[in-house]
Design goal:
The protein is mainly α and about 60 residues long. The chain has a domain at about 25-55. Helices cover about 45% and strands about 0% of the residues. It has one helix and no strands. The protein is rod-shaped.
């Protein structure tokens, strides 16, 4: 479901939008850098959660490895 845009806006704020301050603009490179920085911590948390789930069920090792 698309959210309606405020009046006077025709698309997402980009480099050509004079109303958006330079500090609020996000580039594709910024998103890629953020994704790379978040990958290790998030994957570590997921692994810990999976390990705890296996410990709760009494299966310490995943049989696939």
């Amino acid at each position: 479901m698309k959210h309606p845009q405020p009046p006077g806006r025709t698309g997402p704020a980009g480099p050509s939008d004079p109303d958006t301050p330079a500090a609020n603009r996000v580039t594709a490179a910024d998103i890629e850098e953020l994704a790379r920085r978040l990958l290790d911590p998030v994957s570590r948390l997921i692994r810990v959660d999976m390990r705890r789930g296996r410990e709760r069920t009494g299966r310490l090792y995943d049989g696939r490895r």
